[in-house]
Specification:
Chains A, B: GO terms for molecular function: ATP binding; histidine-tRNA ligase activity. Chains A, B: Residues 1-378 form the Aminoacyl-transfer RNA synthetases class-II family profile domain. Chains A, B: It is found in: Cytoplasm. Two copies of one chain form a homodimer. Chain A has 490 residues and is an alpha+beta fold. Chain A is built from 17 helices and 19 strands. The first copy, chain A, has helices spanning 24-42, 56-59, 92-101, 144-160, 175-185, 190-201, 203-215, 234-244, 251-262, 266-284, 342-345, 358-367, 389-401, 416-425, 436-441, 449-457, 478-488; strands at residues 21-22, 46-49, 53-55, 75-77, 83-86, 109-118, 130-139, 168-174, 218-220, 226-228, 292-294, 308-319, 325-336, 351-357, 379-381, 406-408, 430-433, 443-448, 470-474. The N and C termini of chain A lie far apart (62 Å). In chain A, 45% of the residues are buried.
């Protein structure tokens, strides 16, 4: 027979912008997701899991004038030519789910969802193309009590996963107020409005003077590049400045300033009233401005928001990759999107929700040393005689029966040093040894690997002098002795 | 301004072959995954989560002579023209992971993984294009003790998730034995060998006579269609029949028969010896043939298996969609695949593992009524006066503080009947009512909705006659009274 032409070896690599997660990284995330889901459920939200794949049509990312879907999503064509894509968030799918199943679902429909989302974006340091979100949304509730509740729940959630009060702040704004400001400015062109919103979003970075420049002729940025301005007159730009500087000493003062900023605009006034109601509801439930505060500088990038918007940021400082101090920043955000379901049904269905960036939140907790991993390696039963594998398996079975995580060494047992190196790499607390001599005498050797490692680090320490790191016990006492050592370290 | 041309409304539909999962379906799966992971961890396996997306090259599904990837996977091209695809199982990815990270990982590397996988296949009843798997694999262990361990762990896992002993059976075979039989038959052509394996796989369905026909000239099947045969002579086919009918009264008898079936073949003899070792190890640990048994009819479809293969099937009968009794069938399977890592590194790295079809296992438990959902709806605080939302939120806050799942009705409160209908749809155990009159008198009304529903079903039942389904209590006693009712039903 002719030999097949040899195919070149495939590269063992994750695709660009993706990564693998090992051990504690996986279990810590699972624990955080379970904790968040617990809070959401406690608030009355029910679980929903839609698939990772949606039609591009349902996601609303299809551009009808080109034969390729929009950038930002991973998309392909099904056999029947339907464009399909991986979900890019957990907000668009439930709008589709609600529209599809609305005859069977309760109204309001309160649901939570968790899982990976995918973005077809350029990866960067710490930015991956798959990451986890954990969302809660209320569909069919027009009242801002629904928005207030989500903000309160977000505060509870952050504290529950380990961010203490004072280390986070939830800032609330309202798109209607922004629209009122644009109306007061006389901006009606959609493109120009978008430019103004983008500029407002830069306030935290460039300050009042910078925003003035960007709204007018433009600005030379720190890198020396010239950024074109929106082209408004100074007079026209004034409401934006009034708006951006309207954060007062307390919510009452901020709201008063915002009323000034929106001028005669009816939608603006409505937005301010909604913020007032949210602030009142939260105050009545004891969520003060140390946790949730009205803040006009919050914009939120996504185009689908129609009312209140909110963002949770962590307020403590971390060191960035260049060793400079900076605030950790945003870990969650959300808002009201009253038109997403309407896309499908033609009927207005109000909705509001929050999305927690679980991977960023985990990174923050890790950064602060607040993730205390519960991972412990298994007890390793070593193999001295490969023909007695059944004996070693029986030991492991005894240990597991007693609730102890344990395994037999399954690699090549020839080199015993490799077995102990393996136990070390697995962070095993204990190794068990039974050679032919021990077998004959009915005993086993039990090595305390944690003590062993400490002694290796500092062999002169007095306190360990009288403590053996290896014990010989009768085979019948294997489980009891291992348990005794594990209890020392738990 | 010219008005934008209206885009047609998108269809609110899951893509073909995908579905949404609601409430208990999601939480029951999460609980099952956590239980399985618990067993895997207990056996010493560590968590790994690779991303849903792999390069087609790493998955090994790329056909170099066409510009489209193989069928079976969902694939697309990245911006740099790299073909990417959704993973179709949890076996190919860890082979890539091990090859990529082998300098940092312990050897053997024991890992478990769980999550959705995607198949670009024709969907059918109960067959979806996204489903969950939960796998455990040991990479770098050549000993069949690793295979035996995985079979034992699979038995433990099935019992732990609620399949009692006697309702499942793990059947073990060895690809080397199959290869030995082919050698004994003188079949060396790969295509013909594949045809023979496919025929063996049909033994459960067509029986000995059917297999004889299919190995020879062919067979008229039940639908009247003629199925072409493999074209072997009767004499050539004989070892297959010997092999297929070699299952004896116990493992020892089966192994003896298999030794006959492989004749002079060295690889066949090796396979039988490995099965012997597996049976001995399992027997020593107390896993008898009531749980794990040597069975020559197990083939396993995937091409990458090289040694022991195993399959767990549920042995109880269910009614199929046409009301006929049938066995539930396979819920898990696996085997040894010694060449998957070698694809990347050129070096042989033995590996073995198991994959549990979590969604099928859930379906089986549901079918048998063994999933007792712990889901209970939230207590619903109704809204009688929309201006007193803060009062209602305060009640809910009190209930939540006390650990009770609760929410305020956030829909339009105008029609009170809708609020109770909502509570009903949410399967709420309790509704709380506070109108203006109650507010003035400092009381709340508490409705026992579970009792109410029972009374509505059968209004004449004596036992409920003296039990009220609605209580009036002071506002201060709200939490205590709700707790009292909930305790009746827990």
């Amino acid at each position: 027979m002719a030999k097949d032409k040899k195919a070149p070896r495939p590269k063992a690599q994750t695709p660009k912008g993706f990564r693998d997660y090992f051990g504690a990284e996986v279990t810590e995330r699972a624990e955080m997701l379970a904790t968040i889901a617990g809070v959401y459920r406690h608030y009355g939200f029910d679980a929903l899991e839609s698939s990772g794949v949606e039609t591009v049509e349902a996601l609303g990312k299809f551009l009808p004038d080109v034969d390729r879907p929009n950038e930002g999503v991973f998309a392909w064509q099904d056999e029947d030519d339907t464009w399909m894509a991986l979900r890019y968030d957990l907000t668009a799918p439930p709008a589709r789910v609600y529209a599809q199943h609305r005859n069977d679902l309760p109204l309001p429909y309160r649901r939570y969802a968790m899982g990976p989302v995918w973005r077809n974006e350029k990866p960067g340091p710490g930015r991956y193309r798959q990451f986890y979100q954990c969302d809660a949304d209320t569909v069919g509730a027009a009242t801002v009590a629904a928005d207030a509740e989500i903000c309160a729940m977000l505060a509870d959630t952050l504290e529950k996963v380990g961010i203490p009060r004072g280390d986070y702040l939830i800032r609330v704004n309202n798109r209607k107020v922004l629209n009122g400001v644009l109306e007061a400015m006389g901006v009606s062109d959609a493109a120009q409005a978008a430019d103004v919103l983008r500029t407002i979003d830069k306030f935290d970075k460039v300050g009042e003077a910078g925003v003035r420049e960007l709204l007018g002729k433009g600005r030379l940025d720190a890198s020396g590049a010239y950024i074109d301005g929106v082209g408004l007159s100074e007079e026209q730009a004034e409401p934006v400045i009034t708006f951006l500087t309207s954060k007062g000493a307390d919510n009452a003062a901020t709201l008063e300033n915002l009323r000034g900023a929106v001028g005669e605009s009816a939608v603006g006034a409505e937005g301010v009233t909604e913020l007032q109601q949210i602030a009142d509801l939260l105050a009545a439930q004891g969520y003060g401005p140390d946790r949730i505060v009205i803040d006009p500088s919050v914009v939120r990038g996504l185009g689908y928001y129609t009312g209140p918007v909110f963002e949770a940021e962590l307020t403590f400082e971390i060191l960035d990759e260049k060793g400079r101090k900076r605030q950790f920043g945003s870990v969650a955000g959300g808002g009201r999107y009253d038109d997403l379901v309407k896309r499908f049904t033609g009927q207005a269905v109000p909705a509001t929700g929050v999305s927690i960036g679980v991977d960023r939140l985990l990174a923050a907790l890790r950064e602060k040393g607040r993730l205390t991993s519960t991972e412990q390696g298994p007890v390793v039963v070593t193999v001295m005689d490969r023909d007695r594998m059944a004996d070693y398996q029986a030991m492991v079975a005894d240990l597991r029966q007693a609730g102890i995580r344990a395994e037999v060494y399954l690699g090549n047992p020839k080199n015993f040093g490799n077995q102990l190196k393996y136990a070390d790499k697995r962070q095993s607390p204990v190794a068990v040894i039974e050679g032919g001599d021990e077998k004959d005498r009915g005993v086993v050797q039990i090595k305390d690997l944690i003590l062993g490692a400490k002694m290796a680090e500092n062999a002169t320490l007095e306190e360990w002098k009288d403590r053996p790191s290896q014990y010989e016990v009768p085979r019948a006492d294997l489980v009891a002795k291992v348990r005794e050592i594990l209890d020392l370290y738990s």
